[in-house]
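== Folding the chain ==

***
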Amino acid sequence: QVQLVESGGGLVQAGGSLRLSCAASGRTFRTYLMGWFRQAPGKEREFVAAMSWNGGSTNYADSVKGRFTISRDNAKNTVYLQMNSLKPEDTAAYYCAAGRTIATIRDYWGQGTQVTVSS
């Protein structure tokens, strides 16, 4: 069982940066693939980024490549999402997710943190 708690959301102007954090409970955190998803009002939840258990492999949605960076600190049971060059279309609730594999990455969810980018 993994419990996830996100933080770091807020209001930022276009072109600005934010770093989201996701603190995970459980001694097996380091064995989980971790990811970030987002959901804008009226839209489906979409994949943003994912990282393998050891940080050796990452994946990004095309819309955030080159602007967002996912990282993790297994000693702190925390995964991060550094978001640079933010755009108004990045406005959404951002959710941390965890699973044993990419197919099951949606097994566990955090409560979400709101990111609002003003133009």
